[in-house]
């Protein structure tokens, strides 16, 4: 991502403000920006969603395509998550092959769904050992104002939830016919924090992201599990930061899950 | 499938599939200064894992526009040899390699005194030669030894380990069989142990909050042991280097 000098200068104020216990946009430390989730917005996708987090806007679409299962799990389908940070979304994004930032983002969203067992891969099996569904979740940033991690993870879950399962005939999908809907086993919600000085703030906007030394994400599920951690950037965090992040994440996720 | 579920990951005696206790590391050896052409290097074996890390720089940044006028940048390259996994690994770096390179590089950046070398890059080349779960923590542990061997000033060594769960028990340093348990959780963690600063933390699976606490304590204890081995490796290398210089000087004096 390109650097922006003006943003960097402005971001110096973020920490000074935090020391006076205010966030630059007036939020509390553990408060999300305004969230909206819209589902089923694109007809050609089996499932789709648009998520806004303040001025950050992300869309996700799911395509379920028949494919071969992995030899070590013949009765399980799989998913594949891709995120595109296209220049349309921000003057800081460049075109070309996926950047390391977008690869990390894709993999965190992918693991968040896969490892929390949000999707029962066995339900994506068509014929054991021969044909399974592969769920391609493609996420596009539309407007970037910080915290693409949470926006993308929520969009992916929202798009997968209730996605239509195509009807299969002769190992091919039948156009516009569906055999049912995908039911999620659980809905993990990713909550990302920025470590700025000694402060840990939830859902950083672009200005706060410019000021942060470290980024820390926690995914939580409705059955009281922590299903993923990801620490990023060169700064460090402490055990206590992780503890308080977990508590905040559980509370925040409950509210977001209601909106799904 | 049902066979998998019946596996006993920790038996009644508290021993694991490979005979280890729950808080026992696989055998770990670290040797610094193993590569002639590198500024600093390290060979580390950790159970079946075998990794080789070299460090180059600080040197000119290429491409030039990546350079930072205030500090050095770290380029971490995690690569797996084609024969280092049961199937053949495509040597082209995939998404996993790129993500591991990113998080490991970021973990080291906190430790290195980057501001001493503005406009330069420090390169870490990590090659996994053989693997069996935990290669990223092996590579990161080796990389900080290689950086110290290269004489690059650091605030502390970075020490890494993986903890997790298999068969309902929180265990240290999972091997592949344990990592594939139906209820497996894998949590690689790296600390600068002196100030207990977490520089790398990832986790996948379903953990309760108390399990996280337990896992952290288990990791923190093990990291002290691992760090001792890192320091030991550096001391041995320093001793050997100074002995070699002494002999060289002696020979020189005799010739003259």
Write structural notes for this entry.
The complex is a heterodimer of chains A (260) and B (256). Chain A is of the alpha+beta class. Chain A is built from five helices and twelve strands. In chain A, strands 1, 2, 3, 4, 5 and 6 form a six-stranded mixed β-sheet that branches. Chain A has a four-stranded antiparallel β-sheet with strand order 10-9-11-12. In chain A, a hairpin with a 5-residue loop joins β11 and β12 (226-232). Chain A starts with a helix and ends with a helix. With 256 residues, chain B is α+β, with helices and mostly antiparallel strands. Chain B is built from five helices and nine strands, in the order αββββαβαββαββα. Chain B has helices at residues 2-6, 95-111, 135-149, 176-179, 209-255, and strands spanning 28-32, 40-46, 49-60, 73-80, 120-130, 159-166, 169-172, 185-192, 197-207. In chain B, α2 packs across α3 (135-149) and α3 (135-149) runs parallel beside α5. Chains A and B meet through α2, β12 and α5 of A and α2, β9 and α5 of B.
Name the features:
heterodimer; A: 260 residues; alpha+beta; Ribosomal Protein S5, domain 2; six-stranded mixed β-sheet; four-stranded antiparallel β-sheet; 12 strands; elongated; B: 256 residues; five-stranded mixed β-sheet; 5 helices; 34% helix; globular
**Reading side by side through the largest sheet of chain B, how are the strands ordered?**
1-2-3-5-4
| Class from secondary-structure proportions of chain A | alpha+beta
Portion in strands of chain B: 25-35%
CATH evolutionary superfamily of chain A: GHMP Kinase, N-terminal domain
Secondary-structure map:
The complex is a heterodimer of chains A (260) and B (256).
Chain A: H1 5-19, E1 35-39, E2 47-53, E3 56-67, E4 78-84, H2 100-114, E5 125-127, E6 131-143, H3 148-160, E7 164-169, E8 172-181, E9 189-196, E10 199-202, H4 206-211, E11 214-220, E12 226-232, H5 239-259
Parallel strand pairs in A: 4-6
Antiparallel strand pairs in A: 1-2, 2-3, 3-6, 5-6, 7-8, 9-10, 9-11, 11-12
Helix pairs in contact in A: 2-3
Chain B: H1 2-6, E1 28-32, E2 40-46, E3 49-60, E4 73-80, H2 95-111, E5 120-130, H3 135-149, E6 159-166, E7 169-172, H4 176-179, E8 185-192, E9 197-207, H5 209-255
Parallel strand pairs in B: 4-5
Antiparallel strand pairs in B: 1-2, 2-3, 3-5, 6-7, 6-8, 8-9
Helix pairs in contact in B: 2-3, 3-5
